[in-house]
Design a protein that fits this description.
globular; binds guanosine-5'-triphosphate; 9 helices; binds magnesium ion; six-stranded mixed beta sheet; Rossmann fold; single chain
């Protein structure tokens, strides 16, 4: 099947053309759901690699985004929001995917949402490594803070419980302080050749990204309950001379969810399909024909075998 290639080509060796010293390393972005981790990675990359939404638990997999400048390459690991209290196999997979992304990282970015602090933030903070890996505290969504004076006492409270090498207030959405963040990261990366070709933007396949774009439109268009029980499977992919023909199946858990997703006279699924197609055409830079189906497979999100067959196997 086409669409399996990674976005860009992998590089062996690396370094700059003039042979000057380069830095390269891995940075994990960690935090509870919905604080803005994926928005941050996308803004830093200048391209949407990871899907985002107003709803918590949007990201389900560890996704690498690769930022290459003249003399450094930062490999970000965007991760699912760390959460507790949910026991479905899918939730266990998501937490594992986040925690396993911490292995071998050079820097951790621990992200919180403004001055909000919940038990979920506490839980995520308790999962941070204690092995000397530098941890930067990112206070995100500062654009929403009306009274900036509340920041300082909040930062003091957080720093009392944990040693952060730096604290940076940012706006992932508006780009505030992201250059400062990049500098703070680069100076902590080892001197090393680049791991990836400079035009490679992610380690995920084009096919994975297409399935994620479709899931994003579902998550964004549906109410709060349904999105957590939806996944997308690419069933057919044909690259023709003029367009790419893709068929994808949206799997839900219950017949009622299928009805919601289809909408009256099919208007909901039609609008999801149109929005997804436009984004996919931008990604593939060619015309796309997208056919979407909705199927009920009850219990898929709590069935380890079903999850594996749907691509939730590799952390
Ligand atoms: N105002 C404001 N909103 C933001 C900012 N960063 C993210 N958001 C919004 O917060 C919501 C969640 O953003 P995501 O990037 O999906 O959050 P996440 O941490 O990746 O969430 P999960 O994948 O569910 O763990 C979206 O509606 C974003 O537009 C910011 O700096 N300012
Ligand atoms: Mg996310």
């Amino acid at each position: 099947m086409a669409g399996d290639g990674i976005v860009g080509d992998e590089n062996v060796g690396g370094g700059t053309p003039d042979g000057s010293e380069t830095r390269c390393g891995l940075v994990a972005i960690i935090g509870r759901p919905n604080v803005g981790k994926s928005t941050l990675m996308n803004h830093l990359l200048g391209q949407k690699v990871s899907i985002t939404s107003r709803k918590p638990q949007t990201t389900r997999h560890r996704i690498h985004g690769i930022l290459t400048r003249d003399n450094h390459q930062i490999v970000f690991a965007d991760t699912p929001g760390i959460h507790s209290g949910e026991t479905r196999a899918l939730n266990r997979y998501m937490n594992q995917a986040a925690l396993s992304a911490l292995a071998g990282v050079d820097v951790v970015c621990f992200m919180v949402d403004g001055v909000k602090w919940t038990s979920a933030d506490e839980h995520a903070m308790n999962m941070l490594p204690n092995d000397g890996t530098p941890i930067i505290l990112l206070i995100n969504k500062v654009d929403k803070l009306e009274d900036k004076a509340v920041l300082l006492p909040h930062i003091e409270r957080l720093c009392a419980g944990r040693d952060f090498v730096e604290v940076i207030p940012v706006s992932a959405l508006q780009g505030h302080n992201l250059e400062e963040l990049e500098q703070a990261l680069v100076k902590r990366l080892p001197v090393a050749p680049f791991w990836f070709d400079e035009d490679q933007i992610t380690d995920r396949s084009v096919r994975f990204m297409v399935a994620e774009i479709i899931r994003e439109k579902v998550v964004r268009q549906l109410g709060d309950e349904v999105p957590h029980q939806v996944t997308v499977e690419i069933e057919m992919w044909t690259d023709g001379p003029k367009l790419t023909d893709i068929a994808a199946c949206i799997l839900v858990e219950r017949p009622g969810q299928k009805r919601i997703l289809i909408g009256s006279a099919g208007d909901r699924i039609k609008s999801i399909g149109t929005q997804a197609r436009l984004d996919i055409e931008q990604l593939l830079e060619r015309k796309v024909m997208l056919n979407l189906w909705v199927k009920v497979r009850s219990g898929w999100s709590d069935d380890v075998r079903a999850l594996r067959s749907l691509g939730y196997g590799d952390l």
